[in-house]
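Q: Protein A?
A:
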Amino acid sequence: MASGDEDDPIIEEIDVYLAKSLADKLYLFQYPVRPSSMTYDDVNHLSAKIKPKQQRVELEMAIDATSPNYCRSKGEQIALNVDGAAYDETNTYSTKMMDKQTFSSIQATTNTSRYAAAVFHKGELHITPLTGILQMRPSFSYLDKADSKTREREAANEGGDSSQDEAEEEAKAITVRFSRPESEQARQRRIQSYEFLQKKQAEEPWIHLQYHGVKDGRSEHERQYLFCQSADASENSELVKTPKEYLSMLMPPLAEEKVVKPVGPSNVLSMAQLRTLPLVDQVKTLMKNVKVIQFANLMGLLASGTDSTSVLRCIQQVALLVQGNWVVKSDVLYPKNTCSPHSGVPAEVLCRGRDFVMWRFTLERSLMRKEAAAVIKLPPEDVKDFLEQVAAPRVNRGWEFLLPTDEDFIRKHPDVAHRQQMLWVGIQTRVCCLEPEQISGEQRLKAAQERAQKNQAALQKDLDARRAGGAARIKQEAVSDREDEPMDTSCPIPNGSVNGYPGAASPSSGHANSNGGGRTEASSQELQDFVLKTFRKHFVVTLNEFKRLLNLHLASMPVGRSVFPLRLRPHADGRHRAPPLQTDPGACEYPPTMVLPRCSRRMRPREASLPLQTNSRRAPGGAGRTSISSLAAL
């Protein structure tokens, strides 16, 4: 050859034959604990057994106890620990000495399709595919047997041999439970569990074999099967190929290897699987998982040698710059035609609310949750989800942005930072319309009054319909702890009032002649003041709580003063009486009178202010008369 460009000459042609006689029975044994110069060919093999499905082999080999390198005392001690002092046919060491050892196999590789055993004979190469490659290592299962013997002896010493004295066990109730249907993921996890593998290994029985040495006649006979039994080319069609087929075998086309995904949660992606994706998908997947990250940390998660310029181009498609850090875009987390997993709010509304939260973090590092909730008007679960993605709660400071400001990135990439700032200006114009309108308390009160005036006609119509529907319903309550306590309905009121309201002789009874106009206005104003004061102190209050506060307020007021206006009319006997309740006209001769019950000392303020009791007695003319006692009714 004058130069390297010339073709290599053919020196020799060798015929290759494929032997199939031992194709599914040929194993390669390796002994990694010994050098190749120290083989076990001359060692006495006592027994051999195999589990073909698991490709598991065990060999028992004799130990030369007469060797000067053998410690006799140690061998006797091991045999004593394993078998004990008593002799038994099942003893591991029948000579009371460790005179043998067991070699157990493990698979060196699970895919042996590329391995074969070859024999070169008379210018012919005969190859046989390997079924398995096994590494034989010493087994120390006898130590486990020694430990079990020790535990058995300790249990026998503690409990004694009481098996003959044991009484028959009592019958116990057994609870029958039915297992629920197993999912595919649960089945895969169970199959790959250590307990399942141990069970499967124990189910396959051992097949005992007979060992033949290297120089044995049977071994020589079996070695003949390594040669192809027929020289006919038609039976070796696997090796008879056209030049094109042979070239494709030497240089096969690239094929995507199917990667078996490990069993795990559905939302977890391994780094090995991640790096098989395109760069833009890698960045998008990482951002969806981390939510917020510094650019330097993102480069560390990607494969070494990845171009930072390409990463910058990709990350701007799926993330926005906040405080020098990259935060995943809202439309990536909440795609179109999706909704919130917490409240079912559409994705468009979620994106607008989350963009407002991120925009606020571009202005300051902390944000109060109430401020954000008042603006975006989303359920609390969604607002909390937005904040937990990019911020952490701080005492007395609200929610602080999760990562420190990355000044280094802003300094190295000013063009990217400026471009992101312009994007935020555009987002600001979209989210600023969400700013809350500042409305004072007086404006809210005025708006409520206007709404009440608009609805007054409908409310009056509803009230008239209720009045026409039937008689008034009066709640029955006891006025004191003693239900049978008599009521004084005839004695005059010492304070000159009827039911706590000024009567005709009272100095403040001028409202009776003027139809209660001035008193009504004063009472209404006092009631309004109480309501405003209550709701300024308690922004949210239940109806029962409001009743309780009003009862306490009524109990603390001076005698003869009330927030409820009551219009009295003069009667024939000179006393001012309340307007008659809507009752059956034929059952009442005189209009009901408002009288004050005699309060007991044991009455609570609420009991003294809210008694409603109806007593019926016969009038002189035979008609029924109704007396109603009341201080206030809600």
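Q: Protein B?
A:
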Amino acid sequence: MNWLWHGNADVVFRTYDERKKFRRKKAALIFVISGVAVILLTLFFLFLSVGFDVDRIINDNGGITINEEESGLLSPKEVTGQKNILMYCTDDSDEKITFLCAVRFNMDSKQIKVFPISATEKILPLNSKNVNATSCYNHAGVLQLVESVEKYTGVEFDKYIGCKEGSIEGIVANFDELKFNFPDDMTFEKDSDSITFQSGSQTISDDAIYKILTYSADGNTTALRATLVISMFTQYFNEANIENRDNIYANIISQVYSDISYIDFVSYKDYLVVLASDQVEKQYSAVSTVEEFTS
């Protein structure tokens, strides 16, 4: 390397190999900077596409917030298409499916169908035979359960959400008490514990919801539980809860197994507003066959 003194400055003359190496480093640096810029721009437009207000992404508490009109909940927008969700519950050992149902939100017809699926009957395809829901779950987890229910119903599910029995009370505690109509006097039992409900409409607590969903009883408890899920939808989807949806999501998501990400949840906002709005007429129904569910 040659040095040429000129005043007080040092001028460095590099060899050909050194200049070549320098150009490679410079090109690599430019490539990295360009890649980072592309990623940042992609995230920027992704946030815009799912409804974030970029000017208010970070609120005063340092959390993420959603763009809302100053007047409160936005008026319901016209939404189309449908979402199919698989809901399930396991015992606290996470080895046995105790509740399973498919839900279809059809925004074209404004119909919401709840289809309870037997957790004990051998009706779900797995390899070359039909098995019950627990066998599917124990074979390869929730993804196998989803796949088998998809084959059984012919419906592709957008998302799934499940929980252990012990988490039910903590989940429903995020909402007000529920009004529910019992068609008959019913007693639910498990081990040495039991709870009895008189026929007719009454307000039920978090503990009662947990027992209805997990205890045994005479009669068609599968259909009753589907009706209970519908009552949850019609009463829990209200304006106050939709406005408070970020907090509710944060409280619930840690207690469930789900592939519903926060960005998914944000993108469902217009669906939730329609479900909560009294301005939009909706039809909820519990169905008992695949044909009714898919029609």
